[in-house]
Design brief:
271 residues, TIM Barrel, 8-stranded parallel barrel, globular, alpha/beta
Length: 271
């Protein structure tokens, strides 16, 4: 979808545009707050990581207050590389929800269970609803993708990598993951309707690797998805989640500024 033409009135979007702390890796949580404030992001999504600050409500509140940038979401440590953070699976989700509630964030992002986490997976759909109710936050399950070994696909997640067919109240749509999965991102965004609570804005080329490219540089309909959300007056949060780990500080900042500009432009819906 093209940006609204200059001669047409536009509606200021209700959706916020936030920065994931993972987008400044290997920088720290503190770096993410500083960059978000300087570039004009509306908030920060905290990826709970081995960085001690990401696990500390008091430290995060001080960063929030110092930079004037709210925490809008917490990403639970349910990645393969954070299996040692915060213990057993439900402990991870519960502690993430408690952290979000304490910081005033309305969303907790979780990945679906791995297949080998059988007990966790068996009660997952009902469990995320329980955690949402207990802590007063939306636990939004993120779309993933099949793992690939050569021409063979490995179904690594249970009850599945695609949340659209499961009874989740809240879903996070990740546009890098749709590229890796070969999913139709625009159809997913439209089909989820009111269950779409959160969006991870990134791009991908369709590689078997989860790339998290700057939006507009891959094959995903990033602009079209944002335009669709703008047209329906979506009021969730768009979170920049791009990979800048091999970029210089200046290149990283330029990528994050481009991502913010892309989101703002495509969220301005023509009336």
């Amino acid at each position: 979808m093209n940006a609204p033409s200059s001669g047409r009135p536009v509606r200021v979007p209700a959706a916020q545009v936030a920065l994931s702390t993972s987008s400044v890796f290997p920088g720290s949580c503190a770096d993410a707050f500083e960059v978000a404030a300087r570039l004009g992001y509306d908030g920060v999504e905290v990826m709970v990581w081995t960085d001690a600050v990401s696990q500390d409500a008091g430290a995060l509140a001080r960063l929030r207050d110092h930079y004037g940038v709210p925490v809008v979401a917490v990403h639970a440590p349910t990645l393969l590389v954070t299996q040692r953070v915060w213990g057993l699976p439900w402990e991870k989700v519960d502690r993430s929800a408690a952290l979000a509630a304490e910081l005033g964030a309305g969303v907790v992002v979780v990945h679906p269970p791995f297949r080998w986490q059988r007990e966790y997976a068996a009660g997952f759909v009902d469990g995320v609803r329980r955690v949402s109710a207990e802590h007063g936050v939306a636990v939004a399950v993120e779309n993933m993708y099949p793992w690939r070994a050569g021409k063979r696909e490995v179904m690594a997640y249970s009850p599945g990598w695609d949340p659209t067919g499961h009874d989740y109240d809240h879903v996070t749509l990740d546009l890098s993951h749709t590229a890796t999965a070969g999913s139709d991102a625009l159809a997913m965004a439209g089909g989820l309707g009111g269950r779409l609570r959160h969006l991870h804005l990134a791009d991908g080329s369709g590689s078997s690797k989860d790339e998290h490219l700057v939006p507009g540089t891959g094959t995903q309909p990033c602009g079209e998805v944002l335009g669709l959300l703008a047209e329906v007056g979506w009021s969730g949060c768009v979170v920049a989640e791009i990979n800048t780990r091999r970029r210089t500080p200046d290149e990283r900042e330029a990528d994050l500024a481009r991502t913010l500009a892309f989101a703002r432009l495509h969220l301005a819906a023509a009336t």
